[in-house]
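Summary for the funding panel

The consortium committed to producing paired sequence-structure records for every protein in the target list. Below we show the first two records in order, beginning with the earlier of the two.
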Amino acid sequence: SIALKGDISNLDDPEVLVSYFAADTFTIDTITSNKQGKFTYKNTIDTLTVFSLYFNNQSSSVMVFANPNKISIKGDAQISDLIKVNGNEINDELSLFKESNKDLLEQRTLLLRNLKEEKESNPTSNDRILANTDNIAKINSFNKELTLNAEEYVKKNPTKMSSLILINEFFANSENPNGLGRVMEYMQGDVLKSKMGLKLKAYSEKINRSAEGTSMPYFRLVDKTGDTIQAYDYRGNWS
């Protein structure tokens, strides 16, 4: 059994949604917090399970990696990137990464909030567009620094599940396929045999096969007229 114990400030809505996969079933539950933002959620699982908790009408969220244990969740719903989750090694290590990057995460959250508020108040203002361009550049700079810090963490912790989770967060959706392949090379040990490890490795290999400049894989086909087409026919050609 597990027990998720929450203590979340700035909850505009007392209802907290929790979602997770159990076997092949996707489940969504509702938790009701008290006026102080405290709640408890209990369930039964048989393996490491990822729970996603959503606050304030799904405007913010946090991921919890739970095994049979007690998990504590504490923080501010308006700065969900800094919500601390503790109770096992994975959550503890990810919370330490958040703490070590606290300033970057706070500044990024503030800029994202400003962008949203400005867009809602002055959707067509030229001044807003210029300010947004500057803010977006700053957000991109923060994201780049966070990504570099995540890579450094992975280098130092190549056998930990927390490193895989950071790779999934900062590199899996990157436009640069070389970045994902590079950080996956750091990983070692049984963690690569986990479901997430196998998925990330397969995804990395897939995007590298289709990256710009990659050689076309060999193929041999017969078209509808009966002619044979093979990869060698396109050598030196661009499409």
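The next record, for a separate protein in the list, is shown here:
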Amino acid sequence: MKSTVSPKPAEIEHRWWVVDATGVPVGRLSTAVARTIQGKGKAIWAPHADCGDFVIVVNAEKVVLTGAKERAKTYYRHTTQKPGSLKSPRAFEIREKHPERLVESAVFGMLPKSRLGRKLRKKLKVYVGPEHPHQAQKPAPLAVTGA
């Protein structure tokens, strides 16, 4: 009888992937990116280990929000613990100032809320335009299709 083998940190290979967000719905993009960051597509995946890869998302300003989410979706955050500190910008306001935060928020919501999840957040790099400073890692394209 075979026992379960847990992946060792030295055995895990972390690759780099590039995703072009042009015309892709934010939900489809974020599920594919979250699965890649967690390493769920790998045969050696374990829920307690960091088996995932790094993901670079370019053209974040061209991601698509389907339906009426552009005007209706609200992102809530607190600036302090005091009353009156709730900020609730709409999706179109966030897209105007920081379009990369739309993608980050969707992906981070799909990652585990634990110590490992906070470590996995560092594997996501989101850029507004088509350029990114990670050419030295030789990232491969990751295909995410829209609608």
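Regarding this second record: The first strand starts at residue 16 and ends at 20. Helices lie at 26-38, 69-72, 91-97, 100-108, 115-120.
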